[in-house]
Structure formats: structure tokens, C-alpha cells
Amino acid sequence: MEALTPHQRRVLEALQRLAAEGHAPSLDELAQALGLRSRGSLHKHIRALEAAGYVKPAQGRHRGIRLADDVLDSPVAEGTTGPGSWGSKTLPLLGRIAAGQPIEALARPEPVEVPPALRGHGECYVLEVKGDSMQNAGILDGDWVMIESRSHARNGEIVVALIDGEEATLKRIEQTPEQVLLHAANPAYPPLTLVPEQLQIQGVLVGLMRRYSA
């Protein structure tokens, strides 16, 4: 499966669930199914899925959103749902994140048991950390981080940031009206300086788990 952002993947999985029920939803119906109030960002995700070949091009304002034929039979559709529909003890491991690279999405999300205390208040997912750019914040290569899916963050929070729509990274954010700084927690990595239009926040770190080798 082509690497998708967590938001795009959640939209795709919602469309697959609805398609399995024989329903091609309108944009409003899809927003309601995902619990979204705004259609603006959802429309952008649909366009991205169209460009990637997952969704058929729109044919009129009132036609439902339809998946490409080969996506209907994709293994991702078989029992794979968005973060909000996983069991009470598990969250989906969606992929791996490394500085300066797209999120390496798994072909099929894997359930990971996560204690309630390590979750956020909204929809959450898990990413595996690759690299050492956040090691001084106690986030090491191979750690699993719990991410609360949201598009905004307070200064000082550690976020999953999508840069120029292509590269994803896990960094501490500092925002002003004129610029955004993404700080690593390793002196070997200088801060990234961006204008706000370059950045899309995809989630905020709320928990971490580590597996120790014998």
C-alpha cells in the first residue's frame, strides 16, 4: 500500500467500511462518520486519495464518493478500521516515523495493547520511532509513541509534523505568527525553521512504550 498520512488512511478505511455496507457516502455523510465538523480538510484528503488512485474522480456534486475497483478488494478493508473503532485495549500501529522522511505506512495496521493512561482524549494511533533525533527527550529508536490525532498543538508539545506535504517528523514545536520552529532533542540536529504554510500538524505525542531486549 502506498504510504499515506494517518488522516488519509483513516478516511480511506472509513470509505472501505461504508463500501462493504454497499454505501457510497457524500462528503457530509463521510464527515459525520468520521466525527468531523469541518469538510475543508476532508475534501483535501479526498483529493489526495483521488490523485493516488484510491478513489474514483468525482462525477457531479451530488454523487457519492466511490473507491477504485481494486481498492474494494484490498486486504486493508478486511477488518481494518480507524483508530476510534479498535478494541478498548488496543490502538493501531500505523507505521514508522523518521526525521525527514514520509511515514512508512504498514500494509496492514497491527493492534498494539496500550494502557488507558498512555492514551489521549481523542482518536489515537501508534507510530514506531526510527532514529535518534529525540533521544534527549527520552524517545529512542524503536520506541512506540502514542499520538492523539489533531491538527493543532501548544508551544512545547511534541508533534507529528508533515512538512510541505511530503516529509514527516517527530519534533517539539514552537510557533509564532511569522514562523514555526521544530526542535530536535539532540544537539546533532539543528532546529527546522518554517513558515506556517509549510506545516501540517497531524497529531500530538501523549504516551510512549519501550520494549527491552534481553
Descriptive notes:
By secondary structure, this protein is an alpha+beta fold. The protein folds into 2 domains: 6-77, Winged helix-like DNA-binding domain superfamily/Winged helix DNA-binding domain (Arc Repressor Mutant, subunit A), CATH 1.10.10; 86-209, Umud Fragment, subunit A. The chain is 18% helix and 30% strand. The protein contains 4 helices and 9 strands. The protein has helices at residues 6-20, 27-34, 40-51, 69-72; strands spanning 90-98, 104-113, 124-130, 144-148, 158-163, 167-175, 180-183, 192-194, 199-209. The chain starts with 5 loop residues before the first helix and ends in a 5-residue tail after the last strand.
SSE blueprint and pairings:
Blueprint: H1 6-20, H2 27-34, H3 40-51, H4 69-72, E1 90-98, E2 104-113, E3 124-130, E4 144-148, E5 158-163, E6 167-175, E7 180-183, E8 192-194, E9 199-209
Parallel strand pairs: 1-3
Antiparallel strand pairs: 1-2, 3-4, 4-9, 5-6, 5-9, 6-7, 7-8
Helix pairs in contact: 1-3
CATH fold-level topology of the largest domain:
Umud Fragment, subunit A
Task: Note the total helix count.
Answer: 4
Q: Strand order within the widest sheet?
A: 2-1-3-4-9-5-6-7-8
Beta-strand residue percentage: 25-35%
Brief descriptors of the model:
alpha+beta, Umud Fragment, subunit A, Arc Repressor Mutant, subunit A, 30% strand, nine-stranded mixed β-sheet, 214 residues
